[in-house]
Amino acid sequence: MSSQKNSKKIVILGTGGTIAGKAGRAGDNIGYTAAQVGVDELVQAIDGVAALAAAGRLVTEQVAQVDSKDMSFAVWTQLARRVHHYLAQDDVQGIVITHGTDTLEETAYFLQAVLQPAKPVVLTCAMRPATAVAPDGPQNVLDAVAVASWPGAQGVVAVCAGAIHSAQDVQKVHTYQLDAFSSGDAGPLGFIEEGSLRLMRNWPVAHAKHAPIAIKSIADSSAQAIWPYVEIVMNYAGASGAVVQALLAQGVQGLVVAGTGNGSLHHELEAALLKAQAAGVEVVRATRCLNGRVLPKPGDAIPDSKGLSPVKARVALMLQLMG
Ligand code: ASP
């Protein structure tokens, strides 16, 4: 494996997920409890990773132990701090984060937006629990370590089932199959095959012109209050403005609407969103379509999400409001 070629350390941060899940019966791939196995135990059982540890090149840390459906701002805050900390160490080559699949794309987008790292930060996961007859977690971790060790690799990416996806494009698209992620129109960033990298396009940009905006306030604050209140609403047949009105009454600060098709909206929902906008709420229009992006038209009252899915547009809007 390429990781043997250099002497720097790989850090593996555990956050839970199915990859750390346990079922009562080995054949059960769905009736399990996520986030049970500690990251140390998880990775020490993998040959290639244990070799890294034996060479003194592995650091592990349990940052959280959650089913990622329950991902919270508190975990994001802690994770961003620890990733930021390790990125600053000269003897660290790259970072791997074990994470649940359900919200992996949100965490990946969040970390890329606030850190834009010049080193690789690789999120990986599993669709089957650690107790499965044929768990997918160990190979995913091995692949993620290979990517994190690769000279020149940078930015936040996700590795699952041999494919490397950028934080910008990655999306969970399957409820059950092991190859559960897609990069949509963009396609994967590359593939990792027997420890070798096949890159299809450039790594995510590091330290772009718009410097990381929120890491300072996130690192300096333990307060939940720094996270703006942003919700997602959806367009569908028979949609009304009721949900938007209820959220306005709750003090919502930002709204992402998952429109139909090219961001189209039922006229009642649109009227409620325009009212919210007039009242000072930031409104962004995304699409509920899996592929494509909302193409803006002259005179659009509600700005588009610049190709971001609704969940990522929400993260972007929170960071914008935070900034
Ligand atoms: N619910 C799990 C999680 O997101 C699913 C998974 O990891 O595959 O933590």
Describe what you observe in this structure.
The chain is an alpha/beta fold. The chain is about 30% helix and about 20% strand. The protein folds into two domains: about 200 residues, Rossmann fold; about 100 residues, Rossmann fold (3-Layer(aba) Sandwich), CATH 3.40.50.40. It binds aspartic acid (ASP).
Distinct ligand kinds:
aspartic acid
Shape: globular
**What share of the residues lie within helices?**
25-40%
* Number of distinct beta strands: 15
Superfamily at the CATH H level of the largest domain? L-asparaginase, N-terminal domain
What is the CATH level 1 assignment of the largest domain? Alpha Beta
How many individual domains?
2
Largest sheet: 8 strands, mixed
Note the run of SSEs as H and E.
Answer: EEEHHEHEHEHEEEEEEHEHEHEH
Indicate the mean pLDDT: 94
Strand content: 15-25%
Radius of gyration: 20 Å
Named CATH architecture of the largest domain: 3-Layer(aba) Sandwich
From the N-terminal CA to the C-terminal CA, the straight-line distance is 41 Å
Strand order of the largest sheet: 4-1-5-6-7-8-11-12
CATH fold node name of the largest domain = Rossmann fold
Q: Can you tell me the residue ranges where pLDDT is under 50 for at least 5 consecutive residues?
A: none
Structural class designation: alpha/beta
How many helices? The count is 9
